[in-house]
Amino acid sequence: MMNSKERMMAAINRQPIDRIPTDIWATPGVWTKMGKYFGEKADIAAILHLDGFASVAPEYIGPPLPQMPPDEAVNFWGIRTKRVPHEGGYYDEQSLNPLASAQTLDDLKAYPWPDAGWFDYSGMRAKAEEGGKTRAVQCGYMAPFYYHNLMRGLEQSLIDPLLDPEFTHYLIGRISDFFYDYHRRIFEACKGFIDVAQVTDDLGSQTGPLISLDLYKEFYAPHHKRFIDLCHEFGIKVFHHDDGSCRQFLPLLVEMGIDILNPIQWTCPGMDMVELKAEFGSRICFHGAVDNQRILPFGTPEEVRAEVRHCIDSLASNGTGYILAPCHNLQVNTPVENIIAMYDEAWKYGKM
Predict the structure, then answer these.
(1) Where do the domains of the chain lie?
(2) In this model, does residue 89 exceed pLDDT 90?
(3) Model pLDDT, residue 88
(4) What is the CATH topology of the domain spanning 4-349?
(5) According to DSSP H, which parts of the chain are helical?
(6) Confidence class of residue 145 from pLDDT cuts 50, 70 and 90?
(7) Closest residue by Cα to residue 87 from 5, 173, 29
């Protein structure tokens, strides 16, 4: 029998496995709900037979961040959020796009951009080594399109490339230069102990892509490529998260070297699981896929089990290359009984 790390890495490398590995993404309200259901001291990962990832991050030691009210927060990018109650849980909703009013290159150059020197990387290696004894270690998050959205606001970020290409190239370059320097320091500090890093973005919507393939190639793909190459330089597998209908970007992303694709929203146009496995399954591993827009929150446990079998049959048709998980964060309206059904069926049906 494999341990969780062996199972996850074998699936990522499309090698033989003893059973389909599992992962979980969930909002804080779901964890609270499961704690009440199983008991606050329960080992939920063991109960659900979860594999998942261990994670590490450097400590922020940069300039003091502004003091905020109890329900608000600000990070080192200057991005502000406000906690908003939602159906028994909460979301930290963005309340300020710090570069929304920037109009010129001088405005961008005057902004206090984060610096990779604002972090202490010295304690990461020991934590990564310890976490990696039984679990695959995931560390890092590089997302130039998403951070363009966050810094400018979604609507403005979508029209920036059309209105002012020079401004947009500079902005995305500054975001990406920080990501590159920051992650190189992380990878050097933890050399040999990080298994997976995210080079990710949200290029797809529920019905189709958010931007054209041509715009992606000009403004974002070159940065994704240098991040992917950085990961591979250190022997790190690349996890690419891309919501919705992102089909038109996949040939280029796979060619550039992504190793894992998440979340596989198979109900969106172009995201048929059997087709994706046939076209890309010899080159990448799939992660996610269990529908959490309809089946997990509103289906019966029997429908959840059928969905798990559907995903395994489609994305692990050759017996590997798939990590089962919900296709995004489980929401607080998902019954615990359905969560149990998902992982119990993966445990039973996913044995190779």
Answers:
(1) 4-349
(2) no
(3) 78
(4) TIM Barrel (3.20.20)
(5) 4-12, 28-38, 44-47, 105-109, 124-131, 144-152, 154-163, 165-189, 213-215, 221-233, 250-256, 273-280, 295-298, 301-315, 336-349
(6) very high
(7) 29
